[in-house]
Design goal:
The chain is α+β, with helices and mostly antiparallel strands. The chain is built from two helices and five strands, in the order E-H-E-E-E-E-H. A hairpin with a 2-residue loop joins strand 4 and strand 5. The N and C termini lie far apart (37 Å).
Length: 111
């Protein structure tokens, strides 16, 4: 098995010239994803996450080192910060790990 599945949380400041809406962040994010090799968007939904609106993406792309990667990203704006929660997996094993990742997401809280 050459792929190490992982979950990562990133936090960044919102840039004032892009606006501070979830939609403007989503637009910029999806534009950046389109540069991934063989990018294919599988799902894009507005969801409720920690009592706030968030955008969920599920997509695949070709990773030259490990093959087809399936990723779930959740973008959320909280307290003028953009949070991106990402789960990366071998596309074949994604569904095996998803219940554990969902439990982690369900336990997530902002303090």
């Amino acid at each position: 098995d050459t792929f190490r599945e992982y979950f990562i949380i990133e936090r960044g400041s919102l840039e004032s010239h892009n606006g501070s809406t979830l939609q403007s962040s989503v637009n910029a994010y999806i534009t950046s994803l389109k540069s991934l090799p063989n990018f294919k968007l599988i799902e894009s939904n507005v969801i409720s996450f920690t009592q706030s609106l968030a955008q969920k993406f599920v997509y695949t792309y070709s990773n030259p080192e490990v093959g087809v990667t399936k990723t779930m990203d959740i973008l959320i704006i909280k307290n003028d910060k953009l949070y991106v929660l990402s789960f990366y997996s071998d596309a074949v094993k994604y569904d095996n790990y998803l219940p554990t990742i969902q439990q982690m997401l369900d336990s997530f809280r902002f303090s």
